[in-house]
Design a protein that fits this description.
This is SPX domain-containing protein. It contains 8 helices and no strands. The protein is mainly alpha-helical. Helix 2 (about 20-30) packs across helix 4.
């Protein structure tokens, strides 16, 4: 930010779009020091892959914990009598494990990977075009940079949130609606909610097509997969 401000003050006329200024600076850096740019991109790629691994572990941790809490609470509500329960049901405290910030972090990681991939492409295109009148030392550095571009390490992409976390985010959005909030308050004061209330099991993406072709209550033979409803996430504020 400080460098951009100093550069804007030094220019005769500051550009209106900072993104265009950053692109021109990137092109200038690629032409003046292609080898240094290639080495820097290699370091950024390694750091990005490490960030992707950490983001994947975080997403897996949330998915496992959300699924575990959902199953435990559903079983607790179904099997434990009302007078022996330690808290009111339904209990949605485990929804705090999943926040919109988690999704934003995953999206930002994916966008960063796209920026690095675009920089690799721009560097390769700049080296392919070449610069007329380049000194022998500059030509040698450009050749080394071209070899580094040909050996570009793969960029890992972060995984998206799993079906359990997506289910929680969808319920959170739906509970913000006024009518659904009233239903939630009514459910909290109800003495005997139905088992599994607000603890729905998310439909697996791979089985959604099969569930759409087969009625949910159709009799099936032994060993044949059961049909699943495509949207079981919300029935009277999410029943299962």
């Amino acid at each position: 930010e400080d460098r951009l401000r100093r550069l804007e003050r030094a220019l005769p006329q500051a550009p209106e779009d900072r993104a265009l200024l950053c692109q021109e600076l990137l092109q200038l850096r690629m032409r003046s020091d292609p080898l240094g740019m290639a080495r820097q991109l290699q370091g950024l790629t390694a750091q990005h892959n490490g960030l992707v691994d950490a983001a994947d572990r975080h997403a897996q941790y949330m998915e496992i914990n959300v699924a575990g809490f959902r199953k435990l609470l559903k079983r607790h509500e179904k099997q434990i009598p009302l007078k022996f329960r330690s808290r009111h049901m339904p209990c949605l405290d485990f929804h705090r494990l999943v926040t919109h910030t988690s999704r934003q972090l995953l999206d930002a990681t994916k966008q960063m990977g796209g920026v690095i991939a675009d920089a690799w492409q721009r560097l390769s295109a700049s080296l392919a075009t070449g610069a007329p009148g380049r000194a022998p030392a500059g030509a040698e550095a450009a050749g080394q940079a071209a070899r580094l571009c040909s050996q570009q390490p793969p960029l890992n992409e972060p995984r998206c949130l799993g079906p359990e976390c997506e289910m929680v985010l969808r319920i959170q959005r739906q509970l913000k609606e006024p009518m659904n909030g009233q239903i939630m308050q009514l459910a909290a004061s109800f003495n005997g909610p139905s088992p599994g209330f607000l603890y729905p099991k998310p439909a697996l993406p791979g089985r959604a097509a099969a569930g759409a072709q087969q009625p949910p209550f159709q009799r099936v033979a032994k060993g044949q997969p059961l049909g699943q409803d495509l949207d079981r996430s919300w029935h009277l504020a999410s029943t299962c």
